[in-house]
Amino acid sequence: MLTNPVVVSIFVMSVLCLARLNVLLAILVSALVAGVVAGIGFEETIKVLISGMSGNLEIALSYILLGALASAIARTNLTPIFVHHIANFIQNRRLMFCLFIAFFACFSQNLIPVHIAFIPILIPPLLPLINRLKIDRRAVACALTFGLKAPYVSFSVGYGLLFHTILQKQLEQNGINVTLEQISSVMWIGGASMLAGLLLAIFIFYRKPREYQNTFLEENVLRHLENPKMSRQDFGVLLGAIVAFVVQILEGSLPLGGIAGLFVMIAFGAIKWDNIDNVIEDGFKMMAFIAFVMLIAAGYGSVLKETGAIESLAEAASSLSGGQLGGAIIMLLVGLLVTMGIGTSFGTLPIIATTYCPLALNLGFSYEAIILLVGIAGALGDAGSPASDSTLGPTSGLNADGQHNHIWDTCVPTFLVYNIPLIVGGIIGSMLL
């Protein structure tokens, strides 16, 4: 099992990322390693990688357009006005700020399902406030990842409905007929485990003050905080942002929403004709790297699937399971490994369910325990994966001034505070259900 292409590849990716090699290069090297170990060869691996990149084209385009919207907003007084009101609400309560961010981020999955779209718009303007309060950005990264992940794991609403529906269909296809109500009645254990991780991150691990350097964001935002006022340009940008949000909700297309928002801003003079190039270029600088990482991550996931090693890994793990306790541990760890590689919980469920369902039935797990094991095994690794939007999204906002490292300040903290509680919650819950 240790020579499995997925195990070798993800080990290489983890080592390279922790050694601070650029994450995009680390993923590319890991994809080539997976292909070579599986016997596919360099040439075929590159073909599969390039073909698979199309899986995240919409997400990449969305990132670029969101960057342009964020750039347009940053040029107005909306930024200092927003920070002014947040600062008055939070005052000097650093821990409350992190809890507020986690609470607000939860809306992006269920109530207003925009996923990571709010981060490049909301977080960069708040960096001066974070610096002033000396908040450890690792705590903010954990708060954002909690809001991006815990709601869809726990509740059948918004993205949670999509995740639970995929889980239900995969279980049914493998002989386990369950309802969405049954799934919701069990998966709250995953959300509760993540809540425990969030509280540990905010109140214990990352509660100490941390110093950051003052940057251009500090100057552009804080100089307006005393008496921020709305101008005609500000109203035009605000209208464009609202249109982008409404179109995205109604049409279900984030790129279409971004395009609509930008054209409304241009039409109402919020973005001057002569400044369009600068706005787009600034947005590209802000989000292009994240967009390309998402493209490469999709290709990497395709390479892992093409090797056929994921199925063989699950089968090998099942032969080592022993009793229920060993089976639960192995299923969760393999789920963690797979999701770390392909970077999406939604894509992991169909891969692991085929092997996990028969194994869990043979080990005598109840339907409720199987729901929990497969659901949490799919969710594991989304927090902490260098290729996941649950980590790339927070980094895109927190690193707007170049003072937040993707691996050590986002991936490592979120991996520790969420995956460990999820594994513990999954094991205990499956043994009791």
UniProtKB/TrEMBL annotation:
It holds the Pfam family Na_H_antiport_2. It is found in: Cell membrane. It is a multi-pass membrane protein. Residues 144-426 form the Na+/H+ antiporter NhaC-like C-terminal domain. Residues 4-89 form the Putative Na+/H+ antiporter N-terminal domain. It comes from the Bacteria. This is SLC13 family permease. It comes from Helicobacter colisuis. Keywords: Cell membrane, Membrane, Transmembrane, Transmembrane helix. InterPro entries: AA_Transporter-Related, Na/H_Antiport_NhaC-like_C, Na_H_antiport_N. The chain crosses the membrane at residues 7-40, 60-83, 95-123, 186-206, 233-250, 256-274, 286-304, 324-347, 359-380, 415-432.
